[in-house]
Automatic annotation (TrEMBL):
<feature type="domain" description="M23ase beta-sheet core">
    <location>
        <begin position="108"/>
        <end position="208"/>
    </location>
</feature>
<dbReference type="InterPro" id="IPR011055">
    <property type="entry name" value="Dup_hybrid_motif"/>
</dbReference>
<dbReference type="GO" id="GO:0004222">
    <property type="term" value="F:metalloendopeptidase activity"/>
</dbReference>
<feature type="region of interest" description="Disordered">
    <location>
        <begin position="53"/>
        <end position="76"/>
    </location>
</feature>
<dbReference type="InterPro" id="IPR016047">
    <property type="entry name" value="M23ase_b-sheet_dom"/>
</dbReference>
<protein>
    <recommendedName>
        <fullName>M23ase beta-sheet core domain-containing protein</fullName>
    </recommendedName>
</protein>
<dbReference type="Pfam" id="PF01551">
    <property type="entry name" value="Peptidase_M23"/>
</dbReference>
<dbReference type="InterPro" id="IPR050570">
    <property type="entry name" value="Cell_wall_metabolism_enzyme"/>
</dbReference>
<feature type="compositionally biased region" description="Basic and acidic residues">
    <location>
        <begin position="55"/>
        <end position="66"/>
    </location>
</feature>
Length: 243
């Protein structure tokens, strides 16, 4: 994609590349990943955040945090958002870390966060097969995570990552297992199982290519943004216009 065709950051729904060629009619076939109420908050994470976002390693080990900040009941974290003030853990600053060809100082969010209370059910977008499942233990990582290869209209496929799940979400899941549209595949995890995030949510991300493992670069560097907008399409093409 040439620079002339790269949409500006935080562009409206429909402005981003649509390499899967999904239509409005196609979107009606997909099940919500999280069932949201009619009213929810749209987060702005482009500026430094007032509340502490990540637990310490001791808090994760003891599963307690005396000063845990309150979280909104339901909220959406946006795609293509530069979160330079949020991503503070070594995971995002490690310039040598390479995830499917992406590395550098990673601040551009290329998924959508579906925030809800701990234990909120998480559903399969559509029919598919589990491609990878596991636990990404680093502070600020996905924690318990699942990648599903989903079937799409026109005999296409897409890989979807469901991150920050509860531990029991993956207990009986294995590679090659089939799932169906609307099947409960897990639930939103707490900070001691979701990578250390105080604000419980599902990181939902699409990929047009199979990831090497149960991982995708949930954020990319500014230099890689144009390429990432194609490799990791706007999830609103399957979730609908959440904002």
């Amino acid at each position: 994609m040439s620079d002339a065709h790269v949409p500006p950051p935080l562009s409206p729904f429909g402005a981003y590349p649509n390499p899967l060629d999904l239509t409005e009619e196609d979107q009606k076939l997909f099940h919500p990943v999280v069932l949201f109420p009619s009213s929810y908050e749209i987060l702005d994470l482009t500026k430094p955040v007032a509340n502490r976002q990540l637990a310490t390693e001791d808090e994760r080990k003891t599963r307690t945090s005396p000063d845990r900040p309150p979280a909104p009941p339901f909220a959406v974290g946006r795609y293509d958002e530069d979160r330079v003030g949020l991503y503070s853990s070594e995971l995002f600053n490690d310039l040598e870390n390479n995830i499917d060809g992406y590395q550098g100082r990673r601040t551009i969010h290329v998924g959508i966060d579906l925030e809800g209370p701990v234990g909120t059910p998480v559903y399969s977008l559509t029919n598919g097969t589990i491609h990878a499942v596991g636990y990404n233990a680093a502070l600020g990582d996905y924690g318990h995570v699942m990648v599903i290869c989903h079937d799409l209209p026109k005999n296409r496929q897409v890989y979807a990552l469901y991150g920050h799940l509860s531990a029991d979400s993956i207990e009986r899941r294995e590679v090659g297992q089939h799932v169906v549209a609307g099947e409960r595949i897990g639930s939103i995890g707490d900070f001691f199982e979701n990578g250390g995030w105080f604000f419980p949510h599902v990181h939902f991300q699409l990929a047009i290519k199979a990831p090497d493992t149960h991982d995708m670069p949930g954020a990319v560097s500014l230099n890689d943004r144009a390429m990432a907008l194609v490799d990791y399409p706007d999830p609103r093409y399957v979730l609908g216009p959440l904002y």
